[in-house]
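Bench notes, afternoon.
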Amino acid sequence: MTTDYQQAREALGQRLRELRMSAPEGRLTGTGLAARLGWAQPKISKLENGKQTATPEDLQAWADATGQPAAYGELLARLRGFESHIRSWRRQLASGHQPVQQGIAAEYERSAVIHGFESATVPGILQTADYARHVFTRYAELQRSPRDTEAAVRARLKRQELLYDGTKRFEILIGETALRSLICPPAVLAAQLDRLAGLVGLDTVHLGVVPLAASLKIPPTVPFWVHDERLVMVEIWHAELWLDDADSIALHLRTWRTLRESAVFGTDVQRLISQARGTLNVA
């Protein structure tokens, strides 16, 4: 969690405390407010101390319970302000994966040059329908989110039309682990590897692989995508970070270029793909 995010959450908590203390009918205790809301008292403390992120429903209930419903708009604006950078998967996936895919696609459409890195899975922009189907199913299980797998797959494949847009350039690095990770059945992975092999040499896609045996200056860690020099998307287990400050963008581009020093390209990528496919024993 970033310092800026935590500071913003604590500031929201301070504002919630102010509303509780300045209730028109008199100062409310934390216990009294919890009883009025039907919440456990620790939730009041966590929200006020920036230890828990409020939902829009929490903020509406708080404003109403403290007798200051007009404050809801301000509270929601504060929440939206810091959640525009830290996008919780729980909230994003409340309606399934399709809306998330559509939002990401909009950023790809706005971008001319995309730098991406994925260490252990094939990037969504390069996935086959079957591979994507298994990925969405696994993540829906993990996040306990609605299963709209087929709609999500269609949205992801629709985004792939941008690979053939001559005004765009995709600079993509993946770890060799992505060529071997069985997040899907071997036959599905084999078809996915065939798809990757077919993309090597496409004029809009520059695909590099960081071999397992490569000498590394930095360890490959979380996936990230840099859109032009205006936005970075970073995926972590509980949230997706959207960072637009110059320092974060410069850091991720520097990270990408450092990882690129350990990558191979062209015929060497074809060789690694062929080796990985050969271990699957699939025709």
